[in-house]
Amino acid sequence: MLDQKILMKKLDSLEPLIRYLNDPEINAISTFLADRIASPDSFVTLLGETSSGKSTLLNSFIGRTLLPVKACPTTGAVCEIIFDPDQEEDHFYRINKNALNNKEINKSVCMSLVEDPDKDLSRVRIITKAPNALVKNMRFFDTPGYDSIVQEHEEILKEFLPNSDVVIYVVGYKIGIQDNDYNFLRSFKELV
Predict the structure, then answer these.
(1) Can you tell me the distance from the alpha carbon of 54 to that of 82, in angstroms, rounded to the nearest whole number?
(2) What is the pLDDT of residues 99-128, one digit of tens each?
(3) Separation of alpha carbons 183 and 136, rounded Å
(4) What does the H/E/C string look like for 25-94?
(5) Residue pair 72/118 in contact by the 8 Å Cβ criterion
(6) 3-state SS track over 113-178
(7) Contact, 116 vs 76, CB < 8 A?
(8) Please, how many CA atoms are within 13 Å of residue 189, restricted to the half-sphere of its CB?
(9) Which of 117, 16, 17 is nearest to 74 (CA)?
(10) CB count, 10 Å around CB of 188?
(11) pTM higher than 0.90, yes or no?
């Protein structure tokens, strides 16, 4: 396996070309790769139908209610949760599609973006204290429901899923697995 420093040096050598091309998609990929090299955490993505309990399940991993949960569709953007054992307070960030102007935001702005993302948002990132050693070196991603009325949610999933190491598929306990779950899982198989 290549050393982290070697990988970062190789990516840095491409930086002049990346700047010259000035392509938003290439900038985003470069930023993503740099982040993955610097923090080779496992990416754990929660998938499922709208209102199946993905955010509730993630809140239970955290040990408190951090993400909003409602009976109606709540998550409109991918929410990245990074657990840091040294973190004393929560920090919230907006990550833009073009990977430029990413910045720290306050909790209320973050929760507003979770429910109603703007067109430039790729995801929100929340860095919080690790509740236990089980989540060390893991990043959890809460995703919009796959059958959401909003078409952009499904596009977000299609772009995001190939970057995941582990996928947890959540099924609502009241209705169980349905035909639309099987259909989504078939399309998910094609994505990966």
Answers:
(1) 16
(2) 777 899 999 999 999 988 888 888 899 999
(3) 33
(4) HHHHHHHHHHHHHHCCCEEEEEEECCCCCHHHHHHHHHCCCCCCCCCCCCCCCEEEEEEECCCCCCEEEE
(5) no
(6) HHHCCCCCEEEEEEEEECCCHHHCCEEEEECCCCCCCCHHHHHHHHHHHHHCCEEEEECCCCCCCC
(7) yes
(8) 6
(9) 117
(10) 16
(11) no
Please name the amino acid found at residue 52.
S
Least confident of 10-24, 128-142, 145-159: 145-159
Total number of residues shown for the chain: 192
Return the structure tokens found at 160: 């995001």
Going 62 to 66 to 70 to 73, the CA torsion angle's sign is negative
Radius of gyration over alpha carbons of the chain, in Å? 17
103, two tokens: 């910045």
Q: Which amino acid is at 64?
A: R
- The amino acid at 177: I
* Token pair belonging to 33: 């790769």
